[in-house]
Design a protein that fits this description.
The structure is a homotetramer. The first copy, chain A, is of the alpha+beta class. Chain A contains nine helices and 18 strands. Chain A has one domain: 4-Layer Sandwich (Chorismate synthase, AroC fold), CATH 3.60.150. In chain A, the strands form six sheets. The first copy, chain A, has a five-stranded antiparallel β-sheet with strand order 1-2-3-7-4, with helices on one face. A five-stranded antiparallel β-sheet of chain A has the order 9-8-10-16-11. In chain A, strands 5-6 form a two-stranded antiparallel ribbon. In chain A, helix 1 crosses helix 4. Chains in contact: A-B, A-C, A-D, B-C, B-D, C-D. Strand 11 of chain A pairs antiparallel with strand 11 of chain B, so a sheet runs across the interface.
Chain lengths: ~350, ~350, ~350, ~350
């Protein structure tokens, strides 16, 4: 398995990059939610390829079709299926090289797991293209969360060593998230964004690619949501975030910096403000004991450099089991981070909605 | 919920720090496994408190009783229940202060989630003590994995800024893991261990605490294990690791360093050695597309500084909803990292065993 | 939720009777299975409406499209999505009466659960039409089971008081199942079939409908498959069978007749035949302690009479909350039992495959 | 697996008949529920052996110990673990015959599944004794349901051909359930109970055993609870009921009698009474489309005759793989039905509570 997720809102993801289509089924949505299809399209366009020099030139409209679960523009409460047809595929690029394992991709692991039967074209089911239905689902989740005043936003915290300000240094609100979402390189500090773009274009010129870090915040999550142990907020968000191809690390609050902090610093002392409990600092990223404390939930995910590069690479031929070299052609992103930003928002929204729906009440 | 985990091997964790006992049920173990109870005890003693100056003086034998699932020293295949009775509890320490929210703990979030009904003594169900049954379960999992030649080991990669060598710089094998497991401060480089201990004792003297990073490796996992997307190895391991109290971040392979690496570096080019596929480097930590590639699975988790410190801290009284101060007494670890090492091994072993049992075969 | 099922093979069912389409996602299929699309089509045609006087005149080709998970005619091992577009819908029949709750249907319960937002046309997601993707999925499962020599077959045991022979009185084999599958009224004893058809036509003439009982057998299931307690074979099969609309009861082996039998009769004494363990009788339907014993797994499900009848019925108007009467028009089956036969086979195959894939082995 | 259940309230059952103990973990209970331990004890005593001539003479107090999840007499919201120690076991009875497969038991299927490693003494994990923790858990569920005015009751509908009145012929309320619970043979019609007892004593005298049917009702379940398809109320209740050893069939509402009913009869026409929607009849057992309609949820389960009989039976020796005979000694129930009554109530309560906790709301 692997393509089904959720304790309360069940997701079922399907499709391959160069097959007939890709999509997702969402089971467990509340009924009667008026879906804003324009908002969904906007989120999907932020992820779609071919919008700028920093991304692949493969153009896809990513037009989605809602097959079920929507009636008179509102959710029915029964499973919502979204289908995105594949277009503009150039499978022949892959047919030629399909015995050559592309380094950094899932070509080898997929070959072993599926005994050579998986659809290898464009990465098949492993393709980053599968994040399109995730963004669709996340946009639906964001609309439901917004009714509870819960907002999700992300920015690029780092690309190839160039860093942006972090969320804990500024005031978080939906306007900020909205303005971030409109930027090509969505940084808080525009100057950092300019430098990041330069790094990306430089890597592109060198037939190489770069990675980065995305920071995500979820605000207005009420205190008391989540669980100790296996269904902790961190467990649920991380299980979802590591579903996103290329994510190799996640840290909450001050994350790995906590290794150098004293308890007296990292404890986030409590205070009361306007009759509400809050903490002076937020080194725990809004989560204690796996449960929300009402402060912003903040985490960072690291995205490795796009594996598809035009440089010649050492690899193997899986049929002959011999060492060889590969030169990848086709259309690829020199940096996937800008397009991954809406994906992290989607993943965060889905995780928080699933947790929120699991209130142990009768 | 939150205390039940597993796709193929189901864990059910129960108990509170100062209640009658704590324990775990493992459902789905293979039958006929001869359990080495001494190995289990050794792993549990590595986690047990009161063994050295770096840990709390609360002494517990952590004697476990196997209630079911073991017959004539072998697993029956039906649920194995392990019970650990609580002893040497000093609940009165907690009764006095139970309106005062301890910063950094789950006191506030637990209070909100459970509406004040949870057992607050010693953190109740949120207590780090609940990792004892996890270590029990992990030791069982390690014995089963060892039959497939799969070994798990950990070392302390950092405490309070003092760093050890990393696993990718040395040869990984079970002897190394075994020798690491015998050290009080289990570092590869003993000198680093001495300095780390000094940092811990310094923090203790200052009535404060320190955090750190643990690195874990699982070797000899066959290629082709795991899943794309939601049940990726990273998703499963992270969902388990974030169940361990105080863990706030996890990174696989080169992790957050990937943000500064080019694709040509991070791709892990393939080669063939002794007729087996392997990679020259292991920046992906043995996992591509959520599936094992046969290289060591390597990850690091950050553990925040122990929240219980003897310094006076600002906090609130949850009944009166007023700001106040708290001074924590009792027995606490100035650094939980050394005791967390076997916990990360247990968590890794449980995650890998669960994944391994989920082979999609009939 | 409700439309997601499976421990090892995950099903995700979607769609509404009069929406754009219906379908199913199967996650966890073994890779490399060559699918016989003709066999799938045949099974689906057995369920399809409009084939004979005993069923509705709504004609649907039930042409399915495989969106993903099939590559070069073989399963890829990644999610297989099947989409069936809706055609020949007459939604206006439903628009007129949608405030009038149809007795025997899920109109009222769906209205309450989904707060009036569910798609009411043709029963929406509750429609028996949703069994078409189940039959698709079941046919895939049957093909995989057949590789292990496991076969599934059903016959109509009773319609409106007219009874067929039962499976325990004859020799069970795949040829029998094959010949049964070709009959319009698939009874072992053809004479019973003729009488059943008369009963159906009589009910139709009276603007009424009739129910019946279907008996299903799964042969060659190896001994030792299944689980004690919650994942017993009976638990898994029944949870799947009660997913089929109109099923209101299930019994295994001698079922309700066991209430009048002595232990010395119902115990199924063991013997050895050709070196294999078997039982003289099969009152337990091939299952003991939730686990297969190698004998045929046999169960019967009762299907209530089609709720849509042309007779005038008492009911309520859900908007005005007043009592009223309803006269249902449109196209309906006077007896759904013949079309439900392949559905029970599909459900049995899916349950057995899911159980078989859950062998606790590593 | 097999011993873990629940979508919203997770149960984890453990233990063997002649091991150290048996028990259950309940994860997901609401916090703050004051548990009435006397009520729990009463329910468990109804199930306990040794109370009358119709049951085994093995006496067990079934004293339970709550290990966790209860603080100051109220549920904490964290996992509640109940442990029942085994006493008065006569394992030597089983040691002697453990190569001889007892007909009607899970001896053979357990042997195959667990490769001979399962604890065979007294049936091990398959023992009916494992229903004691289920009754404990069910009593907890009943107390929570009662706060919503939801009540569960059962009576013996048939033993060995002797029938009681059915629930649909009388008025259902908690007083009735309460008075039924106090009877040794809990029938509505006391005369039937007397005759049933005679049948049981007759079977006992003949060294044989008898089976029967139990009818269960759950009243005051609000309309709109449950799900279409795989998590239908029928699917959830049946998956739980078939967990109870010896249950071989279940029918809802008019069940198998629906095979002889016309749609105009079985449709349960709607009416309005006191401003509330109800149906004139209840042939659907309170469930339509898998969802409650507000009418009593009614179902019947058939319990096969106790497999342990003192008559000589044909069987096999599993080690020598030869046919032989077995004469079972020890202490056994000539009819398990009276003791199974509280088990069906427990199972119903657990299923309904789990469903109720799964309301798709945020």
């Amino acid at each position: 398995m692997g393509s089904t997720w959720g304790n309360n809102l069940k997701l079922s993801l399907f499709g391959e990059s160069h097959g007939k289509g890709i999509g997702i089924v969402l089971d467990g949505l509340p009924p009667g939610v008026l879906l804003d299809l324009n908002h969904i399209r906007k989120q999907m366009q932020r992820r779609a390829p071919g919008r700028s020099g920093t991304s692949t030139t493969r153009k896809e409209t990513d037009d989605f079709e809602i097959i079920s679960g929507l009636f008179r523009s509102k959710t029915t409460g029964t499973p919502l299926c979204c289908l995105i047809k594949n277009e503009n595929t150039r499978s022949e690029d892959y047919e030629k090289i399909h015995n050559l394992i592309r380094p950094g991709h899932a070509d080898y692991t997929g070959y072993v797991k599926y005994k050579g039967f998986n659809d290898f074209r464009g990465g098949g089911h492993f393709s980053g293209r599968l994040t399109a239905p995730l963004v669709f689902a996340g946009a639906v989740a964001m609309q439901i969360l917004l009714k509870k005043n819960i907002c999700v936003g992300s920015h690029i915290a780092e690309i190839s060593g160039i860093k942006d300000k972090l969320f804990d240094s500024i005031d978080l609100n939906n306007n900020l998230f909205h303005s971030l979402s409109k930027k090509e390189i969505c940084t808080i500090d525009d100057e950092s964004g300019v430098k990041m773009k330069e790094e990306i274009m430089l890597a592109k010129a060198m037939k190489d690619s770069v990675g980065g870090i995305i920071e995500t915040a979820v605000i207005n999550v009420p205190a008391g949501i989540g669980n100790p142990f296996f269904d902790s907020i961190e467990s649920r968000i991380s299980s979802m975030m590591f579903s996103v191809p290329a994510v190799k690390g996640i840290e909450f609050g001050s994350g790995f910096r906590l290794a150098e902090m004293k308890g007296s610093d990292s404890n986030d002392a409590f205070s009361i403000s306007d009759g509400k409990v809050c903490t002076f600092t937020n080194h725990n990223g809004g989560i204690q004991g796996g449960i929300s404390n009402g402060m912003p939930i903040i985490f960072r995910t690291v995205i490795k450099a796009t594996p598809s590069i035009f440089k010649k690479q050492k690899t193997i031929d899986i049929e002959s089991m011999k060492e060889t070299e590969i030169e990848i052609h086709g259309r690829h992103d020199p940096c996937i981070v800008p397009r991954a930003v809406p994906v992290t928002e989607a993943a965060a929204a889905l995780a928080i909605l699933d947790i929120l729906m699991g209130k142990d009440e009768i």
